[in-house]
Design goal:
Blueprint (H helix, E strand, L loop, with lengths): L1 H25 L10 H21 L9 H23 L19 H12 L3 H31 L9 H26 L3
Helix pairs in contact: 1-4, 1-5, 1-6, 2-3, 2-4, 2-5, 3-4, 4-5, 5-6
Length: 192
């Protein structure tokens, strides 16, 4: 179970550093932002609920190549639905600032997490741990990138390295670090 938690957190970090980070840098959003706790909770719940639905409710479907075509709109609907329900029932818990868009299934993070969860998890407990690991991996990635941004404003950074180049290099090094840490943990646990 610990191996699944570590795997899911590190795997989602790789997805974040590759896709989310490059997308944000391309849009010019390289400043630090608050951690979206509410959206991390929705990500965890949506991946777990969708795993339950796909594993027990949609068992009769042989997904094949249609897996992406069916699960992307479904994951976007669940993310939007959970946000709408929370906004309706507890508006004080829902922040104004949202890092991810629910209409895009949190920029594909919910879909990527769900696909990994569907292919790895065999039991409800494994799906729960993987879903939790994906949310924690997202938090860790965002936290580290925010800390790197804060440190770069305090430290003497050459002008040609400030901003986007520093963030791209940081994401590359973080991806390598998380890959090495994941393999080390898996070797220590005897998984590989």
């Amino acid at each position: 179970m610990l191996g699944l938690l570590i795997f899911s957190g590190f795997t989602l970090n790789l997805i974040l550093h590759g896709a989310l980070g490059i997308g944000n840098i391309a849009e010019g959003q390289e400043e630090s932002r608050p951690i979206p706790w509410f959206q991390l909770g929705v990500l965890f719940i949506s991946v777990f609920l969708l795993w339950m639905l796909a594993s027990y409710g949609l068992v009769f479907l042989a997904f094949g190549f249609l897996e992406y075509a069916l699960l992307f709109p479904l994951s976007a609907l669940v993310c939007m639905g959970l946000e709408a329900v929370c906004t309706r029932l507890a508006p004080s818990l829902v922040p104004e600032y949202r890092l991810f868009s629910a209409a895009t299934a949190y920029d594909g993070l919910a879909l990527g997490s769900l696909l990994l969860c569907l292919h790895i998890a065999q039991t409800v407990m494994e799906a729960f741990i993987l879903s939790l690991g994906f949310a924690l991996g997202t938090w860790l990635s965002l936290f580290l990138l925010n800390e790197i941004h804060k440190r770069s404003s305090l430290e003497l950074v050459p002008p040609f390295m400030q901003g986007r180049p520093l963030m791209l290099i940081s994401m590359g090094f973080l991806s390598l670090l998380f890959t090495a840490l994941g393999l080390t943990f898996f070797n220590a646990l005897g998984i590989f």
